[in-house]
Amino acid sequence: MIHDQANYEREGEGVREPLLSEKGQETVDVRADSPLPDDLTREELTLPNPSEPETARHYTRLSQMNWAIDSGPYPLGSCTMKYNPKFTEDVAADPNAAIHPDRSARSAQGNLELQHRLQEALADIGGMDAVTLQPPAGAAGELTGILVAKAYHAHRGNDRSEVVIPASAHGTNFATAATAGYDVVELPSGEDGRVDLEALEAAVGDDTAALMLTNPNTVGLFERDITEIADIVHDAGGLLYYDGANLNALLGRGRPGDMGFDVMHYNVHKTFATPHGGGGPGAGPVGVVDELAPFLPTPRVRETEKGSGYERFEPEHTIGKVHGFVGNWLVLIKAYAYVARLGDEGLADAAAKAVLNANYLAERIDLDVPFGPFHHEFAATAGDRDAADVAKRMLDFGVHPPTTKWPEMVPEAMLTEPTEIEGKSSLDDLAEAFNLAYADTDEALDAAPNRTAAARIDQVGAARNPRLSWQALDGE
Amino acid sequence: MSRANGTPYAPHTDDETAAMLAAIGVDDEEALFDIPEAVAFDGEFGIDARTEREIRDECARVFARNDDLTEFLGRGHYGHYVPSVVDHLADRAEFLTSYTQYQPEVSQGFLQALFEYQSMLVELTGLDVANCSMYDAATALGEAATLADRVRSTAGDTVLVPEQLREGKRAVLENYCDGADLTVETYPMTDGTADVDALADRAGDDVAMVYAESPTVRGCIEERLAAIGDLADETDALFVLGSDVVALSVLESPAAVGADVVVGEAGSLGLPTAYGMGLGIFACSDEFLRQVPGRLVGASEERAPPEGARDGGAGGADAGGTRAYTLTLQTREQHIRKERATSNICTNQAWVALRAAIHAATLGPDGLVDLANDCVREAEALAARIDELSGAAAPVHDRHHFREFAVRVDQPAEAIATDLEGEGFAVHAIDDHLLQVCVTDLNAGRTDGLVAAFEEVL
Q1: Beta strands A25-29 and A44-48: pairing type?
Q2: Along chain A (476 residues), what's the average pLDDT of each consecutive run of 10 residues?
Q3: How far is A228 from chain B (nearest CA, A)?
Q4: pTM of the entire predicted model
Q5: How far apart are CA B382 and CA B265, in angstroms?
Q6: Which residues of B touch A35 (CB under 8 A)?
Q7: Would you tell me which residues 204-263 of chain B have a C-beta closer than 8 angstroms to some C-beta of chain A?
Q8: CA distance linking residue B103 with residue B128, whole number of Å
Q9: Strand partners, B300
């Protein structure tokens, strides 16, 4: 077993850290010392029992086998992987903030005040009238927004059955609409990569509850016809939903509310640099125009009439709840701290540098970049190379590759989003990694990666023969 | 090398920005924005940029406006002491600042940690499969209902839940059920646990799912889970059991009582109550493997290297066959199956799952069982002390309790709760004359104070 992977040289059986269960497990007789009768308890419990030093080493080793934004560039398109300022962790770790959710409003004035401040800031940034912080992730925000739209239509006695979604949209949009009970109408992209107004006219009608759109879209193109798009949807009686996944490119430069969007979600873990934690927790606040505010989840927060403090209230026609309480609170605190650190000028400049970086990197790489001009991200095509192979080879050059094979409108897509945090030299390195990998031999691409903690992993085999726990490995 | 950026987190110097603009062939950043004038924004939010120190001070001041109370609150959100080692390990930037493991070759560490978390839940539930994190107990329950709808598509559309259920959980469930055209109905409870006879009368072909909790929202350990499981089984309804990660370490195994799915909270390990932030459990039997919502990590192998590999190292002739981990069964997920996906879940609670796993490893099975046993003993002892006070009776339900119990008070419960706040303690008012008290290792040292405060206000 090799415990030194500083140079990523591997031999023999490769680099690995045993499972805790492989280092030893202990079985406890649960009934021996139980205050409960035997018929309510299990007989035994078997789990690893490492000492604290062993635990520390185990998880430290695991952390070392992990790419992170603090390790280097992480230009995953549509994921907006930014540097996470360290001080926001300290702000969120305040024990006074981690109170129990059932606290009375009277005794939780501090939390209510910060919620209120964040609601107001997000409403300003999105050009919306009212915000809920409840959804615990972007996809949960989508579901909240679509349920609000559904409740709005139902309240007007105008049930509608369809949600229109561009083919290039995030997969969550489709799944969200279906989860809310809607049929999905897929909208083909126009030849320029944007929404085709004629196709949109044909797709919307009396059954249209909403159009879900991200702007800039998933190949980094701004939907220039947004005013016409909004008119078409509104004339049909539908609502316009803004998927906030790409909001980073618009900060302080354009607001969904000004473009005619009625409801939107914010991916605060993307736009406002809160750590993604290996896949969450995130948070997906939802903003709406005045007309939709009565349908937002409960509880909401407002200033008391006397202005002496804050109170919770239930919106008149609330959809109820989409999370057990107010959502992923600690993530929201970090988002607040980030917005406060940047202020007006910083927010606008983050968008400017993100757009500058994307355009500079697109200019520097040898791969073809169709469409344009683009904002914060671009979908290069690997052409006759396999995008996934090129990505694996990029790992060998010390960078994390972009999102691959998506969106499908670009063949062998490599969706790249450097964000504002990479400087010129870092972007030059990224471009070099792109270009070296793209120009490499078929054999080299096929063998890649071979300077990483693990060689190429058999993902097909993992799905064919699922082994999802250490119990399932018994006998191996 | 002046960095004249508005954002403190962009490294560009003026010279670099100029060089980059020249390379692109534009004069300034504005030329890169393709936003029509009619919808461009040139106003101000009025958000002043502050320094780190100012923001830390500002937030500390705001949070200090929360009253300093000793909380005896529970009802689904539980605080246990989180050992320091959990913070220090989980806060390592390689975990904290990573993303979903789309390139498993450089994400083996997090993948293995999630695989170990899944394994822990498999042991605790006795079921075959556990996903690696959902948002919280309420949303996990909602996802269970949509799973019931998919796997019981020929049967009914009613979801049966106990009449005593946390309101927020019920409200979230209603929203998931609304989209799936399911109807939520309640079944009665007797003295804090399920009225199994009434449930038997209600069972039938129109029921897609039966949900029961142990411990219940009142803190009662459900004594007839196997009977509920049998009832569900007879009508081919999905039996979904709600619990939490600490209680599961001592209570009878969900698999042994016939649970098809286990949902609940795992954030009670690794997280403080955190104003309701959580970590949902979702475990089920193999039968539903391809219908499970959310992320799954599987074991696989490194691929045998192709001929002609170069660079030495892993691509060398000796590699291949080494166990490695990867996200798997992604054809269930939203980015592949779109509207036919098992769930819209994308980002979830991976880092919270990591925290729960580290906390469990730190406790070991002994520590977990001790913690759970204390949850029974402390509740019993505190209820007995409150019961001695005039004007209060506890526990209201004649059951075994876990962490929490109801108290009947002669005076209006809301008024008592308010008065207790004045004495520095937070308890929950359930209705007119019922309070609920929750005790864990965090507040067990303050029970003398609570009892004295009760005496003061009763």
Answers
A1: antiparallel
A2: 36 72 97 97 98 98 96 96 98 97 97 98 98 98 98 97 96 97 96 95 98 96 97 98 97 97 98 97 98 98 94 98 96 98 97 98 97 92 97 96 95 98 98 98 95 93 96 84
A3: 12
A4: 0.97
A5: 24
A6: 373, 376-377, 380
A7: 221, 223, 249-253, 256
A8: 26
A9: B324
